[in-house]
Amino acid sequence: MPSVRGCNLPDDLLYDVDNHIWFKEEGDGNVKLGMTAVATAMSGKLVAYTPKRVGRSVRAGKSCGTLESGKWVGPAKSAAGGEVVQVNDALVEDPSIANDDPYDAGWLVILKPEDWDSVKGSLVTGSDVAGPYEAKMDAEGFGGCA
Q1: Helix (H, G, I), strand (E, B) or coil at 59
Q2: Disulfide: which of 14, 32, 41, 144 matches 123 by Cβ 3.0-4.6 Å?
Q3: How far is CA 13 from CA 32, 58, 68, in A?
C-alpha cells in the first residue's frame, strides 16, 4: 500500500487526487466512493455529513454530499456522474468514522455511474498515486497525516 507522508493510499482503489476522493468498483457496475486519508487529515475531525439521497442523480464533477469539520465545510465532489444507489447511514450518524477508517467503514455513497469507462481512465490507480499525491500535498502545503 502506498503511503505518502504517513497517509495510506490503498493500491486497490482509483483516485481523483484533485478532489481527494477514492473510488472502488463493486463488481455489479456500481462504484463506492469516499474521502482519502489525506482529506480527512486536512479537514480535521468531521462533525457532519449530509449526502445526496438515494435515487438522486449526481453530475460529474459535482457534489455527492457535504462534509463539515471544525475548520472546513465543503462538497465531496464525484468525478463520476450517476444515480446514488446507497448512502452510508452510519457515517451520517457518526461522521468521525471517516477520520478513523476512510477506506472501509467511512465510505460516502455508492453510485450507479454513467460513462464509467471514460471516468475510470481519468483516475489514478493506487499503484501510481504516490507521485501525484506528493505533488498535491506540496501544492497545498500539507505536511502529512502522521
Answers
A1: coil
A2: 14
A3: 10, 21, 24
Q: Which amino acid is at 102?
A: P
Q: Is this prediction's pTM over 0.90?
A: yes
Q: Map out the domains of the chain with their CATH numbers.
A: 3-123 (2.40.50.100)
> Whats the size of the chain, residue-wise?
146
Nearest of 93, 34, 99 to residue 65 by alpha carbon: 34
Q: What does the buried/exposed string (b/e) look like for 41-79 if buried means 16 or more CB atoms within 10 Å of the residue's CB?
A: bbbeebeebebbeeeeebebeebbbebebeeeeeebbbb
Dist CA 105 CA 127 (whole Å)? 22
Percent of the chain at pLDDT > 70 equals 100
